[in-house]
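Limitations

Structures in this collection are predictions, not experimental determinations, and the ligand pose is part of the prediction. Treat each record accordingly. The example that follows, with iron/sulfur cluster as the small molecule, is included so readers can see exactly what is and is not provided: the inputs are given verbatim, and the output is the predicted complex.
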Amino acid sequence: MAAPTLIHGPQTFAAVPTILSGGVAGFPETAAAGYAGTVLVQISGAVAHPGIAEVPFGVTIREVLDVAGGVPAPHKLKAVLVGGPSGGILPPEELGTGFDHDSLEKAGAHVGSGSIVVLDQHSCVVDLAAVLTRFCADEACGKTIPCRIGLRRLAEIGARICEGQPRDDEIARLTDLSVDIVGSALCDHERRATLALLSVVRYFRDELDAHIVRNTCPAGICQPKAEARAGVS
Ligand code: SF4
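Predicted complex:
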């Protein structure tokens, strides 16, 4: 056609064949839980077959992992990051959550970029949450001060915990600041950027306490407090 075309929403275009072949009336029938159509999910990490799967909207996270061949031994499923860099980190007990907007919001994640990253026993969810929060802070456009400054302070809390140098009441500071950030959000970037650390507080309290109270990282990723003080990198 000699006319360059910018496709900004490939998933929308991917739905066209389904609608054309089944008709608009048949489109909703492909989805579970009252949702319409299918969703493309990028699956990466500790699964047998990483890639992109097209699944009915609303199928469970577990069913999506099954499409990717599950988690092969010797890997053991520890968590799934759902929704991309501003997503939530969910434990295996939440695999029954539907991959749809309402269900993921309730679980503390969101559809977001339509991605699932599967973490095994060698991953540290605290480290991951801290890195994601730092990324989101760096990505803030800067228009809203609570986002620009608040996310940076939130990322610093995550870094202190990972570096074995938490202050008193760090979890309360983290959750209070997150409430303020979400309450002042101008866009979804700010609202979602708190999800990673909040999901660790919600689901992985033992691992968080191991870092804060016992100065250890169960996965061996973060730097223990003693090493941090000694300047060991
Ligand atoms: S809330 Fe949105 S608009 Fe405001 S600084 Fe953050 S990214 Fe920019």
